[in-house]
From TrEMBL:
Residues 23-81, 91-149, 154-217 form the Chitin-binding type-2 domain. It comes from the Eukaryota. One of its GO terms (molecular function) is chitin binding. It holds the Pfam family CBM_14. PANTHER family: CHITIN BINDING PERITROPHIN-A (PTHR23301), LD20793P (PTHR23301:SF107). This is Chitin-binding type-2 domain-containing protein. The lineage of its organism: Eukaryota, Metazoa, Ecdysozoa, Arthropoda, Hexapoda. SUPFAM superfamilies: Invertebrate chitin-binding proteins. Keywords: Chitin-binding, Disulfide bond, Glycoprotein, Repeat, Signal.
Length: 231
């Protein structure tokens, strides 16, 4: 298998790296073991005989369990000193054949998931944004100043609340209903809004500011929320 490296300044050491691959010795008679230099290269050992293998383009080898043959996205794998990678096989819309990328250069609620070089658009759950470093969807206030939580959620948290108001009971994380959506609520964390979902088929009661079973929510409230979603 041809060995190629991603970083130009490692090219002078290609001969030494290739030599280390040729001299790889299985740490155990059977299992899957990482190459000491290249993060997407690993070996399958059977009876102390190594067979060289390469992760799919864009993925790297997880070396935390020698009994499992598993490649994952780089964000989930601490490569450490295994800094080398093979040359990417790019395609339109995908830097690698497999991977996840932001949907835009600005704060985005969507992302691109590349599978066999084909880009597919995916969306974060409502109220979340894509974090390009962790390749996960997170609260927008976790990416300030890159993201504006108020713009994403469409709500501005008040600095003060009347002492006897229902929302004040939950201070410092006051709650508020979402107009036209009886399945979600807004809570404020450190002055920034977060959109939450009741889940489990429950509805948000704007009186108690809690998620309740539908039978426990006043029918007029459910009917009003339904009309708001239809308007």
């Amino acid at each position: 298998m041809e060995k190629r490296v991603l970083f130009r300044h490692f090219l002078p050491f290609l001969t030494l790296v290739a030599l280390s691959w040729a001299q790889f010795r299985c740490p155990e008679p059977k299992g899957f073991f990482a190459d000491p230099e290249q993060c997407d290269l690993y070996y399958s050992c059977v009876d102390n005989q190594p067979e060289e293998k390469l992760c799919k383009d864009g993925l790297v080898f997880r070396d935390d369990n020698p009994k499992k043959e598993l490649c994952d996205i780089p964000a989930n794998v601490p490569c450490g000193d295994r800094t080398l990678l093979h040359t990417p096989i790019g395609s339109p819309g995908c830097e690698y054949q497999f991977g996840m990328y932001p949907g835009s250069d600005s704060c985005s609620t969507s992302y691109i998931k590349c599978i066999y070089g084909e880009p597919h658009q995916a969306h974060c759950d409502p109220g979340l944004v894509y974090n390009a470093k962790t390749h996960t969807c997170v609260w927008p206030d976790e990416l300030i100043p890159f993201c504006n939580p108020e713009a994403i959620v469409g709500f501005k948290c008040p600095h003060k609340l009347p002492p006897n108001s229902p929302a004040a009971k939950f201070w410092p994380y006051p709650r508020f209903p979402v107009p036209g959506d009886c399945g979600r609520l807004i809570t404020c964390v450190d002055g920034h809004p977060r959109l939450l979902t009741c889940g489990d088929g429950k509805l948000f009661d704007s009186v108690s500011l809690t998620c309740l079973d539908p039978d426990d929510v006043p029918h007029w409230f459910v009917h009003f929320a339904f009309l708001k979603t239809r308007s």
